[in-house]
Amino acid sequence: MGPISSLVIMPEWLDLLIAFMIGTGFGFALEQAGFSSSRKLAGMFYGYDTTVIKVFFTAAIVALAGSQLLSYLGLINLNQVFVNEYYVTSAIAGGIIMGAGFIMGGFCPGTGISAMSIGKIDAMVYIAGGLTGAFLFAETYPLIRNIAEANYKGPVKVNEVFGISPGLFTLILIAAAAVMFWLAEAAEKRFARPDITNEL
Amino acid sequence: MKVLKQYWIVLLIILATITAVFVKGFSRNSFRYDAVKRAEPSVNKANIITPGQTARLPGDILWIDLDGVKNFSTGPDEKVISIPADSILTKTYKKLIFKHKGSIVIKSADKAISAGVWMILAQMGIKNVYILN
Amino acid sequence: MNFKSDMKTREKISALLLSAGIILALLPLTGNRSFSGKPEKVLSEILNAETFFSVDQVARFIVTEDSTIQLIDVRSPEAYRKNTMPRSVNIPYNDFIGNDPDKYLNNRNIKNIFISDDDYDSSLAMAYSKGLGYSNCYVMKGGLKEWTSTVIESTFTGERISARENALFETRIRAARLFNEMNSLPDSLKLKFMESKKFSAKKLDGGCE
User: Strands (DSSP E) along chain A, which ranges?
Assistant: First the structure.
């Protein structure tokens, strides 16, 4: 729990307990939002149900705005937040594979585990496939290493690339989210599938 | 009025946030500046000044002796004050330092004391503070 | 599904988020940290006598190979190469300020003792660290000047020596020996030693690795 544990000294078990509680809350929220239904998730790509983008994007901007405010007030240390290292080629390739897998399987890794926990067989097969893919990636890594590590940019942040303050970037992202939600609502009307959405 | 009634919780949260931000922003009892930026003068030694260089400092100079003995060899006497290092952030002296418009020169026989006090004052937002070499 | 109440909730959340975004856009946020805690408390920690170790204490740490101590020399690499303190690492002051100190100071079980020629740079580094919340930072009082005059050039005069003085003198002799051995190494070996002691950026744990 980097941002909190660097400001408050806490024993490791408490650190892990907080992580466990947050994970439990995340799984609970996913399930109650209906994300264990593959038809709801696939609806994001077909346009008839855009709940996924609304929920995840809202969560992202709430976390972004909240963490920055807490950081300004000195309550958390944002320098402890892990920033993913950016490899352009593997981000594009991985994104394509992930997107194709998402629409074909109707799950992403997190929602797949959430669905698996309520006994859905398709989610169990999906997760087994995901673990197989991860294993194969690890075993074949020496062969694909050059592609995986191509175009390395380091742990970059978007606001640093554009040379704007984190606060201004947050405002732009919130405005973009509002536009996207409006477009999502329009898409739901355009690509409505009452035969599916009435069952969800 | 109807809008206020419907959105009272939203307005309350926004008001609370703005209040917290203002309190943090204008409080002299806390640090609020970029630590790296404020420490920069110490990296290129721009915060150390010799007696000869004090003539070039902008505005009036406030001389502070941190050892409790007024022991400056230069500077007009009326602006030399003696403040023990551990009392420099008491209410009276903090007000004096923050209200001073010109430059502040601090001195101590112990370099560790002058270095430590300089760092604290710089991080609290005082820009024209120097250590007399 | 109550559409009207859903809309109201959405409007409220949107209003809240947009307001938060506007407030954040107006704030002088940076990627860097500022000091934490009350200035009075930080100042009293910086001026506390227990924040300073004498050269004799540091000599004892070196001689006993105390693993709970990390000596950080904040002088320039050239000065460090000329006179290297045994069991120390070199982090020039400008590098220390320019980088996230967490990669050097994140182990809370270790006491970090800053060393410079005199007290100036080491005290600045210590004050900076304590301000950022690293309470495990200290200074070797007097710096290398004091180390040279007290430990390296240590001599005993007088007819009788007490047990305590004897122990002190022995520690100084052993520390001086280690210091001289370190600094009599040929440059190539010294450089190798310095390279091995360099900090590499500690990666934060996280992500999908």
Answer: 86-87, 152-154
Quick one: pLDDT band at residue C143, thresholds 50, 70, 90? very high
- Measured in angstroms, the CA of C150 and the nearest CA of chain B are apart by 18
For chain C, give the mean pLDDT: 85
- Is the full-model pTM beyond 0.95? no
Main-chain phi, psi angles of C19, to 5 degrees: -65, -45
ipTM of the complex: 0.83
Q: Which chains touch B (3 or more CB pairs under 8 A)?
A: A, C
Closest CA to C53 of C140, C112, C131, C126: C140
β B80-82/A86-87 pair status: unpaired
**Tens of pLDDT, residues C58-113:** 999 999 999 899 999 999 999 998 889 988 999 999 999 988 888 888 888 899 99
Substitution target in C27, C30, C104, C136 with the highest count of A β-carbons within 10 Å is C27
Q: Chain A: residue nearest B33 by CA?
A: A72
Inter-chain contacts counted by CB atoms under 8 A, chains A and C:
87
- Could you tell me which of A163, A161, A2, A153 has the C-alpha nearest to residue A85? A153
Task: Determine the Cα–Cα distance for residues B22 and B18; give it in Å rounded to an integer.
Answer: 6
B121: tokens are 């004052």
List chain C residues with CB under 8 Å of B13.
16
What are the start-end ranges of the H helices in B1-133? 2-6, 8-26, 35-43, 91-99, 111-123
Q: Which residue of A has its CA nearest to B32?
A: A72
